[in-house]
Design brief:
Beta-Lactamase, four-stranded antiparallel β-sheet, disordered C terminus, GlcG_carb_metab_protein
Length: 151
């Protein structure tokens, strides 16, 4: 099983930063390991200070609940099955899109969390990191040029 090292985290952050730059946004990008421990974090120039905590907690949420944070948005509403989940775990659970688990053979080995723009952009930037991870480790990807996963 892949262990999320600093070297891997830096590569995922590079892919996410590239995507953020193409979108014209400044983001905070966080990578955690399978235990939710911070491996690396970057705050792009001009990114909001508040996004540091949010990005880390999006990554922690994605790894601890083994699902994208965007999946929680609907089920955390007052009519949802998990209403109030965002008040648990000392408030660390984030129900905004931008946190996505990193999987190998169905197992969660880490996660990425992104904050600093709209939820749509946060998700796009997080997906760029996930796609880089999948490309680096050959998970369910088609052959393509080196930077194609940055789209």
């Amino acid at each position: 099983m892949v262990k999320i090292t600093l070297s891997i985290a830096k590569q995922l952050i590079e892919a996410a930063e590239y995507k953020a730059k193409t979108l014209g946004v400044s983001q905070v990008i966080s990578i955690v390991d399978e235990g939710g421990n911070l491996v690396a974090l970057t705050r792009m120039d001009g990114a909001w200070l508040a996004s540091i905590d949010i990005a880390q907690n999006k990554a922690w949420t994605a790894v601890s609940l083994q699902m994208p944070t965007s999946a929680l948005a609907k089920i955390a509403l007052p009519t949802g099955e998990l209403f109030g989940i965002n008040t648990t775990n000392q408030g660390r659970v984030v129900v905004l899109g931008g946190g996505i688990p990193l999987r190998q053979n169905g197992n969660v080995v880490g996660a990425v969390g992104v904050s600093g723009s709209t939820i749509i952009n946060d998700v796009k930037v997080a997906k760029a990191a996930v796609q880089a991870f999948e490309h680096l480790y050959g998970f369910n990807v088609q052959p393509f040029p080196h930077q194609a996963y940055y789209y």
